[in-house]
Amino acid sequence: MTALNNDNLDKLDPRVVIPAYDRRSVTPGIVHFGVGGFHRAHQAMTLDDLMSRGQALDWGIVGVGVMPGDRRMQEVLATQDHLYTLVVKHPDGRYDARVIGSLVDYRFAPDDPQAVIETMADPAIRIVSLTVTEGGYNFHPVSGEFDFDNADVRHDLEHPEAPKTTFGLITEALKRRFERGIPPFTVMSCDNIQGNGEVARHMFTAFARRRDAELGARIEDEVPFPNSMVDRITPVTAGTDIEELASRFGVEDAWPVVCEPFTQWVLEDRFAAGRPAFETVGVQVVDDVGPYELMKLRLLNASHQALCYFGYLAGYRYAHEVCQDPLFVDFLLDYMTLEGSPTLAPVPGVDLEAYRHTLIQRFANPEIKDTLARLCAESSDRIPKWLLPVIREQLARGGEIQRAAAVVASWARYAEGVDEQGKPIEVVDRLKEQLMTIAADNRTRPTAFIDNRELFGDLSEEARFRRAYLDALDSLHHKGARATIEALVRC
């Protein structure tokens, strides 16, 4: 066993790829909020690719954690000189292990918010990036407006000098840069939200305007918020992943990252103070990200929702189990072909039929072991963004909606908190209490779940959707998930 740190890089198993550059020459250029598995398997890896070519050595990443659970990430990375292992799991059982060196520091904001602010105020920092999940943007799921009732937001508006939130920290850093005559950095969202850059711009400027109207106007005018589309299945690191890395490669890493071979990043070319040459390592740098992100949100992300609740209720626990079942594969392909794809604009350079089948192959990778519980989590942030727009657009054009409506019904059935074997389901959602209370009335008041206007707006008033939803929910209650899928595949 070899502990992962700078001193031991040359002692690692030669099958483990290590940084092909002197990490002492890397200086910070990016501050990143939300250093989880996805960022480390995606953006940080891309920077490491560039650095291994002798490029972008002035674009090192300083990670920032804001949530209480981020403290452990800080502690783990500190003991490993901010190194970690990226393990790519191939469907045939092969593992590729690689040490990523592009992360040069990590700050836990609650310990010293001033240090985080001053790091971002440094002229060397030219990009502040985000992977804070859908919920991290603090917008109302229906109205899309910034939630000023959030307690930490109220604190930051009352005490801007000691912020607790990402909004407060970044806004204060921009204020100091403006005051010191330093050009602003670019705010680069890499979250799975349609128009993620525009969402970030809207949320940050709303916060900044409430704090100071002039400051908010200047941020809106001078700070770029490029849109992006990011894609790589990156399940939560399990204890078995740590053990597997140790047994296969002899690496002692307290928090490695595991992922699939596939990766995609489409990025709008809009930056205030330059950017790394991402396009030289496979990033698609484009003028318009829209068609690509819509493709991913409505095919990949929505298909994850289409498989996870039905799959869990049917007794599966992993995505690959569902996608090795021909019945579920037919259902997913039907959803993507007949309901998701018709809502898409042309996607330059992409064969949608091939893309749909590639998604099934990716989901079926048995080495990833992506849990259905992970895919079922935080549904109230996901379904309204990924699936409900498909239903609304298909209703407007007279298209098919039966499968998407059934997915909503499967979510409602899942939120009842008991599977078809009578075992409890651990619902993970910021609205857990509300959702489970409503779902408890599913059998006595079948429209209870979709009557929740906070999530569904007036969708329950659409007769065609309501009928399809009720048919699916009734089938789930009386016949079960598999029989419900069988009927949908035959229709």
UniProtKB/TrEMBL annotation:
It comes from the Bacteria. Its EC number is 1.1.1.-. Keywords: NAD, Oxidoreductase. It is an enzyme of class 1 (oxidoreductase). Residues 288-475 form the Mannitol dehydrogenase C-terminal domain. Residues 29-279 form the Mannitol dehydrogenase N-terminal domain. It holds the Pfam family Mannitol_dh_C. One of its GO terms (molecular function) is oxidoreductase activity. This is Mannitol dehydrogenase family protein. It comes from Litchfieldella rifensis.
